[in-house]
Amino acid sequence: MFILLIGIRNSMAKKRRRIIEEKEEEYVFVPSEFDEREFILKDIYGTKVLFVITAMAVVVGIIGAMLCKANDDIGWIIATVVSLLTVLVMKRLLIMARFRADLLDMKTMLMNYLLFLMLALGICIVFVNAPFA
C-alpha cells in the first residue's frame, strides 16, 4: 500500500506538459516546363537512328555469314570481331551518315548498340545454317 501511495504522489506532483504544435513546412511541387514538341521530335529522331542501325546490322550480319562460310574453323570469331568493331565505330558512322548522335542520350545509344549486336550476330547465325547454306 505504501508503494501505491508513493506512485500516486509522484504522479500528482508532475505537471502536465502542454504540447505546442509547430507549423509544418509546406512543400509545393513545381513541375518543370515540358516541351511536348521537342520530346516528339527527339523520339522521332531516335527512331530514325534505330532504323539506320537495324539496316547496318542486317548488312554486317550478311557479311559475317559470308565470312563464316569462307573460313569454317575461325569464321565465327571473325564475324564476331567484325560486329564488335562496327559497334566501336558506330557513332562515327552515324556522323558520316549525317546523323547527330550527340542528340541521343547514352542510355538510348547503349540500347542501340546492344540491339545491333544481337541482330547482326543473329542474322549471321541464320544465314550460316540449313535453309541458306
Q: Looking at the structure, what is the overall shape?
A: elongated
Count of DSSP-assigned helices = 5
CA-CA gap between termini: 102 Å
Order of helices and strands: HHHHH
Low-confidence stretches: none
Mean pLDDT: 85
Q: What is the radius of gyration computed over CA atoms, rounded to a whole number of angstroms?
A: 34 Å
**Strand-residue fraction?**
under 5%
For the secondary structure, the number of strands is 0
- Tell me about the largest β-sheet: none
Structural class label: mainly alpha
Helical fraction equals: 55-70%
Q: What does this protein look like?
A:
The chain has a domain of 89 residues. With 133 residues, the protein is mostly helical. Helices cover 68% and strands 0% of the residues. It is elongated and about 95 Å long. Helix 2 packs antiparallel against helix 3. The mean pLDDT is 85.
Provide a compact summary of the structure.
By secondary structure, the protein is mainly alpha-helical. The protein is built from 5 helices and no strands.
What is this structure's SSE topology?
Elements: H1 2-13, H2 36-70, H3 75-88, H4 90-96, H5 106-128
Task: Pick out its properties.
mainly alpha
